[in-house]
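As agreed, record passed on underneath.
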Amino acid sequence: MTTFCGSADTITANIVPDSVYTRLGGAPAIRRLVDRFYELMDELPEAYAVRQLHPSSLSGSVDRLFKYLSGWFGGPPLYERERGHLRLRKRHSPYAINAAVRDEWLLCMQLALAEQVDDLALRTSIERVFSSMADHLIDTDYFIKGCPR
């Protein structure tokens, strides 16, 4: 069984041994994954629309995603400790997220995962959950100005 969601009372000393967090390699591996994800978002022309939803400096986004994934993957709940309950859809509500933006985000994450996660079963499991989560964040049918269909 793959554990994706850490509880708010998880502490570093009590990280679930078979969690995604542990299987990926802990904080250093999550940091590499997040760094590569945002590098790809910055580099790939195919990620133009999703990149435009972010500030010019990605440092805050990198920090928040690292903290979010730490807890979500079963490690220390860094994001929740700092910012409270995740409420993903609510936190993304100011942004127009359509299928194209979702696909661009998923492309960056899938490429980062392919580079960083050798375990195919684990990678496939993570991709499946990310895909479902990204579908949930779609809040518009409209295409963002300047974005290809």
Observations:
- The longest helix spans residues 26-43.
- The chain is about 60% helix and 0% strand.
